[in-house]
Structures are given as C-alpha cells and as structure tokens.
Amino acid sequence: MMTCKEVLESLSEFVDEDLKADVVQAMHQHIGVCSECRAEFDTLTMTIKLYRHYETPQMPAPCHDRLVKVLELEKMKKKAGQSSSGSEG
Amino acid sequence: MVEERAVRDESDEALVQRAQRDDERAFGELVHRYESKVYSLALKMLRNPEDAEDVLQDTFLRAYRGIKSFQGNSTFSTWIYRITANSALMRLRKRQLPTVSIDDADEREVPINIADWAPGPVEQMLSQETQTAMAEAIESLPVEFRQVFVLRDLEELSNAEVAEILDLSVAAVKSRLHRARLKIRNRLATHFAEQPKPRRAMGAQP
Ligand SMILES: [Zn+2]
Dihedral of the CA atoms B86, B89, B93, B98 (nearest 10)? Predict the structure, then answer.
C-alpha cells in the first residue's frame, strides 16, 4: 500500500496519466480507501478543469496590423543597411 | 526550386529555409502561422494585453533578426515559443517583486476544508468570483512556476516540449507543474471555503 505522502507526490502525474500501470493501480487502491487523498485528487482535478475552462481572448486585429508595421520598419532598416541610424523611438 | 509556389503550402522547415535566404514572404507566412499562438501564450503569462502585445512584437523582431542563426535543431514552433517565454519572463521579472527562491517555495500549504468543493459539474463551480480567484492564484505564482504552468497546463504542450522550450529537465518541469497546480488549488480551496456552498441539484430545497 502506498503511503499518503507517496500518493500526494505522484498526484499530478496520476492526473496526467503519466505513471506506470502498477503505480496507477496502487494509487487507485489508496484513493479508494483514503478520503483525504481522494479529496486531494478531486480538488486538483477540478482545479485543472476550471482553469482549462476559461477562454483566453483572441488576438485583437489591430495587434496584427501593428506587428506587420513593426516588421516592415525592421525590413526597411535592414535594406537601408546596418550603418544607418534611423531610430524610431 | 519553384520560388513562386504558394507559401501557404510549405512546411515550417521549408519556410525557415526560405526566410534564411531573405524571402520576406516566407517569414510573413511564419508570422501568420504563429502570431496568435505567441500572443495567447504571452497573454496567459502576463495577463495584460499591452504587455502581451509588447512581447508579440519583441518575439517576432528577435525571430526576424535571428532567423539566420536558427539551426533547426528544434522545430520552429519550439524556437518561437522559447523566444516568447524568455521575453515574457524578463517582463514578469521586471514587474514582480523578488520572490523566494523557488527551491524554498515548496512548503505544502495544506488548506483547510479542501474537501467538498470538487464534486459536481464544472459549470456549477464557474462564477465571476471563481474566475477572479483563479486569476489571482495564477498571478501569485512565482514566475518560473508560471512559465511551466502556462505552457504545460494552459497551452497543453507535452512535458518534453516544455522542457525543451525552457531548457529544463523533464523532471524539473513535472516538479514545477505539480507545485504550481497545488498552489492554485490551495488558493481556490480558500476561495471556496469562504463561499456559500453551491447549490447542488435542481431539487435542492431553497
Ligand atoms: Zn492517503
């Protein structure tokens, strides 16, 4: 039987399904009978679900336009040659 | 070599090679392919649209200047993510107060009452307050943890990819991810402990 400490240390990998089959089985066994580790597992799993549920805003279109301009400027600088000192602030 | 071939159909590798020969359209296509990913990564790390845009511009300027020295030992996406992560890290370090050494930061903050908030569907747990608590929890992560957390858990890259991007061992990635998750979970546990219990079922008595 795994100890609580061992279970807690492997919890993330367990959630990520990144453990060997025999360890997975031992984890399941422990969590089945230990309510504290079960709660640790449930809350960690829910935490991951919760933050993956939030959508990040898309890149606004003006960001693209400004990026293109910045790169155009850099291209012009390159074409003008390294010696030029055209600083754009 | 058919130079006029549509850049849209080219692989990243082919585009890199063309960009290294000063093909501006090829570099433009790489920008097109990766700009929203870079922006999204920067926004998740910095949580501020202006900073994310700065990192976006910084990343592609560096990529443009450095494309000839890109060896192709890693994929272009790993390379561009690495530039993004470094640029975001520098900005975070400037913004954040010095934090404790991350090796000392492993105290297990055992929360009280962690039980009893996980059961039930995600939708039930979602609220403006939870979102705010989550944002604060992520912002409270030390920068080195946050990098790993964003790449691994929000961008959902593999441990190996994150290790390559951040120049860490896979073991270090796993360890930081685990600690980051626990920190966020513990902050949320505190949040839920302070909340009235969510109503469980439709049939619950008012
Ligand atoms: Zn236990």
Answer: -110
